[in-house]
## 1
Amino acid sequence: MTLLSQLAALAAIVGTGVVYGTDVFCALVQRPALARVDDATLTAVTGNVHRFADRRMPAPGILGVAAAGAAAALAAGADRTAAAATAAAAFLLLVGWLVLYLRISAPINRTLTAAADVQEAASHADPRITMRYDRARGSLDRHATCIVAAYVAGAAR
């Protein structure tokens, strides 16, 4: 049973690694590269990337989540408490991440894919607005949501 739980954990690592490896590539390479193109090209490329990614990426994602759950159950069945707890935590975190993806990213991906289908670019009248958004993205401390959250957290003390 221990060998099965280890194989399940390995499958979870591989499946999850494919998904997060793709995200890292997009963050390190794709995003900076696409920052240099016009809005129409950005919409077309991003929409078509999501068209294929949304069809192909569920398989490794589901493998990662299911294998993490199986690793937790198999480790618990083998009385390997630490391994079971670790795999269960991984499973719960992956499920939480999946919920965030389904509620936030998936609708955006569908919108981008639909925009690519009709070759519609979302652009600003003034490109300086987009540049301002890109510069401000790293300074979340000034974001209204963060200010409200900090205020609420301070009031809860």
## 2
Amino acid sequence: MTDKETHAGYDCFIGEYRQPLSGGCERTDMDPITHGALAYLLYVGYVMGRVIISKSTQTHHLPATWAFVPLAIGSQFPDLIDKPLAYWGVLVSGRSLAHSAFSLLLIGALLNSVTWIQSRDTVSRLPTRLRASIPTAFVIGYAGHLLGDAAYGLLSGEFFSVRFLVYPVSALSRSSGDELAPWVRVINLYRDPSTVIHVEIVAAALIVFVGLRVWKYSRKRADKLN
């Protein structure tokens, strides 16, 4: 497969599209909505793991409401940084600096340090649960974004397509897709949502979300009756 194929007026780039045997382009990247849904599922899985280990649902809610904000931001963070900077010519690619695993580790460490300092501030205005949720939820959302973008390449063995994970160790080339404004790319992306949204992931996230709301409501009713 070459670095670039063209089909129906769209450029097909390694890491964003693949060229199937039948010809044409098939999307392998992940849209913002699916990124958010995947991050939610990963966070719920993390919290459920903690619940199982601690054997207590009193301490760990599924998931903490405060966690939605950093989780949502983290799930979109790499694109919010790389896509505009690539469009403005600051970065070489729309998947580079913030899409690197090194950036994930660095930002995660910085967030943990800031949160630790905040926890020692007795006059901090941040709610205790928010302080506890920020680093973990953000990092899970961030990691989920990288996982979503790299999933096809990793599963198919096309490791060259996920070299952005080790940027700047591995050099990246600029694609013509980065010449398009990020907001225009999103608008174009959702002109036909059925072709870009990973329905199975979004549906799973909705089912889990509704299920947990029902569980929480039932649990509160049971507690009142007791």
## 3
Amino acid sequence: MTARGRLRRLRRACSRMTTLRRLIARTARSVTSMRTRASLSASSFHANGDRASAVEEANASLDETFGLGGVRVGGGGDDAAPTGRLTHVDERSGAASMVNVGSKPSTSREATASARVWLGAEAFALVRENRMKKGDVLATARIAGIMGAKKTHDLIPLCHAIAIDAVKVDLTLNESERAVDIVAVASCTGKTGVEMEALTAAAVSGLTIYDMCKAVSKDIVIGDVRLEAKVGGKSGNWSRREIE
């Protein structure tokens, strides 16, 4: 990895550390309030057996401490309007559960995800020249990403099995970073989004690149796996470029 690439990674790490320090400080200031609310929630649960109320009390405590909700009881879906709360929670038991999307209409949806694999100088040169012993790294990683997207529901416990219309995986050699940039686009016509399929495609492509190149270098880094954009669904369109 180049000095510029290392500097970028260091800056990202410093930014994350600053955010973490702020979060710890906020948590410390609110810990007494959290304990009080948790105690009240526990009392309500044991006295009345009201799990939903107990969860809502815990959410209120999380709202106060972190500025966002914890677990939203019932309703919603994978692409419900953003509320800062989780949707994979059973209303009565509080246990993790698959969201029921049976009543939702089928609409056109698309999601784009990305990832980056830092190879280092030697492995990058071999990939660029297609001289890796295992074969064509980029072609293999592209097919692996497509296969991964189709297997998402087998890998992620609460994902729905989606009839995917198309998956496209593009891999680009990044000379300055000695890396491979991955962009995966998944689309479907269905009742829930394809964000997880796009993310899985990007991640599996990255893992495949590592597998193809690990004999040359163990220092390969897979990172920046993230959603770039989504189109369709109840929550509407979203793009990372709009928030950066």
## 4
Amino acid sequence: MSRGSLWCAGMFAFSAFLPSSLAADSLTDVFARMDRESQAFKTMTADLTDLVHTAIVNDDAIEYGSIKLKRDKPGDTRILLEFTRPDAKAVSVEGTQVKVYLPKANVVQVYDASSKRGALDKALLLGFGATSGDLKASYDITYVGAETVAGQPTDHIKLIPKPNNEARQMIQQADLWIGPAGLALQQRFATSASGDYRLATYSNMKVNASVSDKDLRIKTRPGVQINTVGK
């Protein structure tokens, strides 16, 4: 057995014999931190590293940029992602529309997400303002362990969507790495049974900084072309 395989086996054995009471206490602590943060959570900005893994070809596509998120009330979450490399791109989620701006082509692609809005709401707030009650109602949750993400201490929890959870349309499993402040410093979404996943890592996070509605709008160049996808 290789050294890497031996390490994995050892970690599996350790987790298998982790006392259930210790895991329960750790999960209770994570929930308490998330609930405290959710009471005041309105906005979040951060730098973002977004990795998309395609299992069939064992390929990782990585984009770097930033995120702005604002939640005025439950069910009203708006997001703007602005990627700078390797290629510039902006993605906004507002209401029932998802917009993708491709600066090189100067084109905005508009998608109607009304049929998946419930799923989007449940996925968007994972680790950002959702209460433990919200999560327990929609997911089966287990505590994985204490881990370090980009030098920060976190608690890793695993969430499996329940049968009645609309998020099952989009994700098979979600993993969250919750930091000391009760917010996700990293998220992994398993998007297919074949092993595809998306891994989002956040740094330089600022909570409840000023984020206006204008800040959440995609900035385009003059002459931009608007394409409504599916029409």
